[in-house]
Amino acid sequence: MICSSTSCRRDRCCGTVRPPRRRASRNSWSGSAPGGFSEIWRIRIAGAGHRIDSPAHAQGTIERIVVLSGGLRAGPVDAPVDLAEGDFVTFAADVAHFYQALRPGVDAVLVMTYPAAS
């Protein structure tokens, strides 16, 4: 869908993420809440086998991922899990971790929660 609104940004159109034209894309939104700060990421990976590596985040950071379509291997480097459409996983992201497409067309939502600053 193409929007004619002048308030739309390049990566969002009336709150709807436009389809990417790259092999992988990440769109994010963020906000704070009592007890920490969270970011919501939309991850799309077009090609099977494509992998996104992520270094360890701050101590106590947690990631939650739900797969909307496709197949995704994700989690800590030493303990990843395979996810299919509709699957959900939570893991500590204060260690090196990754996201890898098992099949073409991965679409997932990731919520990253950082601990409150001391």
Automatic annotation (TrEMBL):
Keyword DNA-binding annotated: yes
Keywords carried by this UniProt record: DNA-binding
GO molecular function: DNA binding
Record field: transmembrane: none
UniProt superkingdom: Bacteria
Protein name: FlF4, truncated DNA-binding protein
Organism encoding this protein: Streptomyces xinghaiensis
Gene name of this polypeptide: flF4
